[in-house]
Design a protein that fits this description.
With 252 residues, the chain is α/β, with parallel strands linked by helices. The protein has eight helices and 13 strands. It has a seven-stranded mixed beta sheet with strand order 6-5-4-3-2-1-13. Strands 7-8-9-10-11-12 form a six-stranded mixed beta sheet. Strand 9 and strand 10 form a beta hairpin. The structure holds zinc ion. The site of zinc ion has 4 residues, from loops.
Length: 252
């Protein structure tokens, strides 16, 4: 039983050469859950697995995280075997935002006759969700307006923050048992994203030792982060994860 986290892209919204930030949770070499689907994510996913994703979790609806969903709709809708089967896990409060961003746009198909959501199997969540026998914790992050961005954690295995400022009070709960922590981190922070100095100030030694920085601004910024002592994720890199622990007692 081997669990891995593969980074399809590791860039900030403007870092085109690094790809849109996105990861895939793999188990025994099989992709189990794609996290976020930016404009270039589907190409990278298909290059890695030769197939379309069967399950997606969306952290928030900035276009560098959902910009690939329109194209995925087309691919799914015209594939009878896949239509309506791709699970789309989404915090319930994000449904209206995704509706406004993508689903409401007139004429999702030139021929008409279909609603955008019908290509997917929407699974709204709040505290978390079950997927293939595992419970995934969903937690609020600090990106922009409260209630518009949510990270994901698999107990004992990994935490993926999505775009966020530091959230030490939350990671104290969801990253308390040896999880690898993939954390938003650019060279310099800003009101929406974490910077290297922010992580150094907000997190203790144990947590920093388990952190992998992603969502940086360029390859050069990545090298500078490494020179500062941070472990960074590279596009295409697959990291080994600890095996998940049983769900927290308050899960499910
Ligand atoms: Zn964002």
């Amino acid at each position: 039983m081997s669990w891995q986290l593969r980074f399809l892209g590791t860039g900030a919204a403007h870092a085109v050469e690094l790809g849109s930030s996105s990861v895939v949770l793999e188990h025994d070499g099989r992709p189990r859950l794609l996290i976020d689907c930016g404009p270039d994510t589907l190409d990278r996913y298909q290059a890695a697995y030769g197939a379309l994703p069967e399950a997606i979790y969306v952290t928030h609806v900035h276009l560098d995280h959902v910009g690939g969903l329109e194209r995925l709709f087309i691919r799914l809708w015209f594939d009878q075997a896949l239509r309506g089967r791709c699970k789309l896990f989404l915090h319930a409060s994000l449904v209206p935002w995704l509706q406004g961003r993508i689903a409401d746009y007139p004429g999702v198909l030139a021929e008409g006759g279909v609603n955008w959501w019908e290509a997917f199997r929407l699974v709204p969540c709040h505290r978390g969700f079950w997927h293939e026998g595992q419970w995934f914790d969903v937690f609020a992050t600090r990106h922009h307006r409260a209630g518009t961005s949510y990270g994901l954690a698999l107990h004992g295995s990994f935490v993926y923050t999505g775009d966020t400022r530091p959230i030490p009070e939350t990671l104290a709960v969801v990253a308390a048992h040896g999880e690898l922590v993939a954390h938003d981190c650019g060279l310099v922070g800003n009101p929406s994203h974490s910077g290297a100095d922010d992580l150094a100030r907000e997190y203790d030694t144990d947590l920093r030792a388990r952190m992998v920085a992603y969502h940086y601004g360029s390859q050069d910024d990545g090298r500078k982060l490494e020179a500062l002592g941070w472990r960074i994720a590279h596009p295409g890199e697959s990291l080994a994860l600890p095996d998940p622990l049983p769900p927290r007692t308050d899960a499910g």
